[in-house]
Amino acid sequence: MSGKDISKDVLNAVKKKAGKNVSEKDIHKLASGVKPSTIQSEKQLRQLIKQVSSMVKVPVSESTVNEIVNAVQKSGMNPNNMEQLMKMMMKK
């Protein structure tokens, strides 16, 4: 999956799951601030989840935030592999 394909897949997944349109520019702007440490830090990961929620204007309950944080932490995924994270989140 190339970077362009990821953006297209993310946009399509958001539209399909949430019925919301998000621009490719918005996705790139948000993604540019994500670093491997973001996924390793529970506080930063929670902040990222809330940013995405706000961007697509879909509220996320605290229990759902907890589920996402737990899934990311338990997955043992390499924090340098954002493609793996995107695939995991698009399946849900």
TrEMBL record:
Query: Pfam families of this UniProt entry?
Result: SpoVIF (PF14069)
Origin, by domain of life? Bacteria
Record's protein name: Stage VI sporulation protein F
The species this protein was found in:
Paenibacillus ginsengarvi
The record lists the lineage as:
Bacteria, Bacillati, Bacillota, Bacilli, Bacillales
